[in-house]
Write a structure and sequence with these properties.
single chain; alpha/beta; D-Maltodextrin-Binding Protein, domain 2; 2 domains; seven-stranded mixed β-sheet; 13 helices
């Protein structure tokens, strides 16, 4: 992920320049620990939350932690707040954490989550029938690369984000190989390069994100997700395999540790109220990843604009 301008002062200093001093007493002097994951939008929403809390006198620390294990860290007391848990990829983890009683789901952040296979518009000429997924059954070679030919190359982030794409490819009989990009920065740098050359590419794109607003393209239309698709092989077009459908769509939830409400009641109210508009978040991600603005400047501008809401 390409995150610019994360200066140490965001993590350790008390307030943004020009913001009023602490406006309410701290209930606890312990730091509120906010998790950072591996995509720019989540860094933005996490630092927005942190700066809003600092403006009210709380001490805030940040910790980088894997997305899919963040809830476990919260249950163990190592993390206080996570700004983004996507229903599309973390539903099972959220359900399991809810049952422990050690975390609290604070409600939706605001933007709606969408994650799916995405291709540039120019690939429709090479694969007639898109966006219908069945077109891919005959178009593997059109999306191939030397290491996958004659099969197509699907670029994702399977190890980190757990999208079940190898299982989806097998269940739907797609002539593709799933390749892990390793990092989000590498994945979208490859998209930019391919787009400029009109080279073959199909990859995981999610929203909120800057890609759909910068590049012309479409998401593949797979069979609509239902929970049974992931658990019952008899569901769907393949009676022997699960995952014969697209990815789920849904909310992006905020989470906090179960003791936040008692330990930092004022902070709890801020985090519970935190709401970020999806279109505004897309623009902020673009400012950082495309326009090259420092992340701390983008966060400061947002907090200055919205601080009166908290």
């Amino acid at each position: 992920m390409r995150v610019q301008g994360l200066i140490k002062s965001l993590a350790v200093c008390g307030l943004l320049g020009g913001m009023p001093a602490a406006v309410q007493a701290q209930e606890s002097k312990d730091p509120i620990i906010i998790a950072l994951h591996d995509w720019t939008g989540q860094h933005l929403t996490s630092h927005i939350a942190g700066e809003l809390l600092k403006a009210k006198g709380y001490k805030v620390d940040y910790v980088t932690i894997d997305y899919l294990t963040g809830l476990t860290a919260m249950e163990n007391g190592d993390v206080t707040f996570m700004s983004e848990l996507w229903q599309t990829t973390a539903q099972d983890a959220m359900d399991a954490s809810d049952k422990t009683g050690k975390t609290e789901r604070l409600g939706p952040l605001g933007p709606k989550a969408k994650e799916e296979w995405w291709y540039p518009a120019y690939m429709k000429e090479k694969c007639p029938g898109l966006p219908d997924w069945k077109a891919l059954l005959k178009c593997g070679e059109a999306f191939s690369a030397p290491e996958t030919a004659p099969k197509g190359r699907y670029l994702g982030m399977e190890a980190t984000w757990g999208g079940h794409d190898p299982e989806r490819i097998e269940a739907l009989g797609l002539p593709f190989v799933a390749v892990d990009a390793g990092t989000e920065a590498a994945m979208f740098a490859e998209l930019k390069s391919a787009y400029e050359r009109k080279a073959p590419i199909i990859l995981w794109v999610y929203s909120p994100h800057w890609v759909p607003s910068v590049f012309e393209g479409e998401w593949v239309e797979f069979p609509a997700y239902e929970p049974a698709c992931y658990t019952d092989p008899k569901w769907g077009t393949n009676p022997d395999k699960a995952y014969d459908c697209g990815k789920p769509f849904g909310e992006i939830f905020k989470y906090t540790s179960a003791d936040t409400k008692k330990k930092w009641p004022g902070a709890y109210e801020v985090l519970k109220k935190l709401n970020v508009d999806g279109k505004e978040l897309n623009l902020m991600v673009k400012e950082v990843d495309v326009d090259g603005k420092p992340l701390d400047e983008v966060v400061a501008a947002y907090v200055t604009k919205h601080k009166g809401e908290y």
